[in-house]
Give the backbone structure.
Amino acid sequence: GNSVTQMEGPVTLSEEAFLTINCTYTATGYPSLFWYVQYPGEGLQLLLKATKADDKGSNKGFEATYRKETTSFHLEKGSVQVSDSAVYFCALSDVNRDDKIIFGKGTRLHILP
Amino acid sequence: DVKVTQSSRYLVKRTGEKVFLECVQDMDHENMFWYRQDPGLGLRLIYFSYDVKMKEKGDIPEGYSVSREKKERFSLILESASTNQTSMYLCASSSHGQGSRGSYNEQFFGPGTRLTVL
C-alpha cells in the first residue's frame, strides 16, 4: 500500500544552519506529495507541494523536489530561523482516492538561537 | 480567510462518558476528516465524509462514530470514552479531488482538541 517514511526527530539545529529532513514514499501510480507544518499549539498547514516528477515545491525559503527515481521528497532550507521550530509532516495523496492524504509520523525541529 | 474551527481546545472527560467533538468549516468543502495525533504515531485517520450524510471508515474507526447532517459540520462521537482515547483530535476539510493524474486537494486543519479521559 501507499506509505511515507520520514526521518525521526527531534532534529536540533542552530539558527542559520542548513536543514534537510528526509522523506521517502511507497506508492503505486503517481501521487502528489506534500509537506505540512504544525507550529506549537496549532493545527497543520500546507507548507509546499509537488504534483508530478521533477516538480519543485517552495515556500518561506523551504524547498522540496519530487524525485521519482529515488521515491523521495526531502525538505531543505538554506538558513533556518528560531521561528521555524515546529513539527514537519511529509505526506502523499492516496492514488486510489485523491481526497485522502497519507501522512508520515512527523519530525520535530528545534532551532536554537 | 479560510477557517476550520473545533468546539473545544481542551476537554477532560470520565471513562464511560459519551463525548462529542464538533468541527465547523466555512469554505463550502465537500470533504471533512477526523484524525487523532499521538506522539510517535503521527496522524491517523479515524473517519472521513465526502458529502452530507456520507461517511467512510479510516484506519482506526473502532470506538468512534461520526455524524454529518450539514455540509459545514462534522461531529466525532466517542460512544463510551476510554483512557486509550486520550489524544489530540484534529479536524480537516478539503474540496473534492479532480480524479485525474497529478490532482491534489489541500486539507485545511482546525487547531485541534486535546482530550483527556480519566
Remarks:
- Chain B touches chain A at residues 4, 31, 40-43, 45, 48, 50, 90, 92, 94, 96-99, 101-112 (CB under 8 Å).
- Chain B has a mean pLDDT of 91.
- The radius of gyration of chain B is 14 Å.
